[in-house]
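Memo to structure team: turn this sequence into structure tokens by end of day. - J.P.
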Amino acid sequence: MDVSGLVAIVSGGASGLGAATARRLAAEGAKVGILDFDAERGAAVAAEIGGHAVKTDVGDEASVAAAVAEIKDRLGAPRVAVSCAGVGLAARVVGREGKLSTDVFERTIRVNLMGTYNVMSHAAREMMALEPLESGERGVVINTASIAWQDGQVGQAAYAASKGAIAAMCLPVAREMAKMGVRVMAIAPGLFNTPMMEGLPEETTQGIVANIPFPHRLGMPEEYGQLVSQIIANPYLNGTTIRLDAAVRLPQR
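Reply from structure team:
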């Protein structure tokens, strides 16, 4: 699929992987709608790329429904939906003095998993109502998992569960939507230079980088955006999760 002239929705498009993806798709000629809880930063990225931003709580279905409707009204119905919005909260199942982390688990699942499901659902419904392109495609959905899906560390039970579910639903949803010409893929990023990582002390960052085989560095958000572009362009990619991780495997801690 050639995105030039098409509408793409990117959740979490105000920063990190989402912002890089929004910029990449806009550079390729797409009209980009940004869904992000950070209205100010979302608007700034949208102004930069000539898109449109809507303040959205992805974990709230009504908020996502209203945001997708607004993007459709301003830019048109989406052919592409990329979910990058998420949180990386860490907590042990049973912490010090027996403190439980059910609140962390609930919030992580709501934002990461339900947020992805909400964006995918509302965007795919719009795609299915469109006429197919010459390739037979109506649209492409790309969700963001994580390598924690397979090698989650201590304290990542909630995060790994949310990302594992995103990876697990990729194939069944792709099979479901195949008859309508909508492809569904997932990307599992490794250790990337995002705002979350930038806030760590240099010593901590160097310790993390030491575990990355090659390239021996953090991933760049632009490389995530590049893979999104490649998935969109290749019509035979469907129903699988791609690790984008420089061959890293996370240690226990």
